[in-house]
Amino acid sequence: MLRARPRHLASLIALALASASACTREPPTPTGTEQTARERPAAAPQPAPACQGAEREGGKLRWFVDDYDKARACAGEKGVPLVIDMWAPWCHTCLSMKATVFLEDRLAEHDRRFVFLALDTDREVNAAAVKKFPPAAWPTFFVVAPADESILARFVGAATIDQLIAFLTDGERAFRATATDPLAPHEAAARDGDRLASAGDHLGADAAYTAALAAAPADWARRSDLLGALISAKARRGAHAECAATALERDGELARAASQTDFFGVALGCAEALARAEATAPQAAAVRERALLRLRALIDDQAAPLSVDDRSDALMYLRTTLDQLGRADEARAAAERQRALLDAAAAAAPTPMAAMTYNWPRAEVYTYLKIGGELVADLERSAAALPREYDPPHRLAWTLLKADRPREALPWIAKAEALAYGPRKARVLALAADIHEALGDREEARRCVLRQIDALQNSASPSPANDAAIQGAQDRAAALGGPA
Q1: Measuring CA to CA, which of 45, 209, 360, 371 is 20 to 30 A from 13?
Q2: pLDDT for 7
Q3: What is the pLDDT of residues 37-47, one digit of tens each?
Q4: Which domains, ranges and CATH numbers included, belong to the chain?
């Protein structure tokens, strides 16, 4: 799920693209003079030059991978919108979407109506595209007009197949709209909100999303994801009281889907900010109680269209809220339920890459339960099965550190550092510093922090968050001894 999580909760929660296979070929037809022209199969249409290179990833859709220019050119040549999946290998919700929703047969017709592009946001080759279409969280999906690169629609977090199709349909409507066939007012306002939010104008996005929801029919298929976008805009501009009020007033409009969990994930972040002041503490308590009510109902609804990853996130938010309310026994019960759910899913996963979807939430909940050591063997098997992926050794090193086994974590964090790239490398190096500091080696910890600073300066796009990360790393280097 989100994905659009506040940073203070992100630390609590944190298929990949499968090998592309050639399109299925028709069986050979008989040859000979007895076969007439009518009987001979017509030659398969050849893709336009700009569209060569898109491959199927196990489902009905063909994807370009890490090639924005080629995907955009293909979309322009075909006269269709471009769909961008902003994902990363460390994002469990990204992996879950690839292994579930994007494999749905119902997407078959969309293969000709759109061009699909998957961009690993950590790869330097994608930096320019990521700057144009910044993810609000992971994953973030965009529908884009190839001619002028304008945003037609945006979706943040996990989607059901119905939500994904509604999002694609709205993006296509925006692409085809004309002066004689314009968008409806609520569609145009939603599009404007997506553009403003992507540009960092959260006040403007708030107003646009509010207008869209007010003008939309009650049964609008995109109401839930627009409510999530609205509450996120309020949170991002620091309007925590408005964010909480929205959660209490409008949660009944949400569909039974992951978007409900994402909505309350943001609302709980606002509640945490409000809980710090005596005057707003009652509002924070009301949001937390409402979140408990809604999350319990969603988790217990076996008919709700939730993936395992979605249910796991809902359980994580549930136990976090229970802990905040001092209900430790109930929180532990939710954690045990989450662990059982994830263990079963990992054991049933058809491929090592599918199983990797659950590495981080399993590591987090096992560590919460203080039994992280019990997961080490599974994470070692994941690292062995996926020798080119940095995420399994990274998760393994973190789990070992949290289990007070830092020396065993050393070879795994070294492997993760060797494999990691882009902004994620800085996170790996920060963990390496934690491990060396736990071992009492402050000098080596400082060297890791200096490499972290270098990774932040050279791999990430300039932003206030990145500047803050660099400053924090420089302060840590100084605290460890010597100038940064």
Answers
A1: 209
A2: 39
A3: 434 454 555 55
A4: 1-11+48-176 (3.40.30.10)
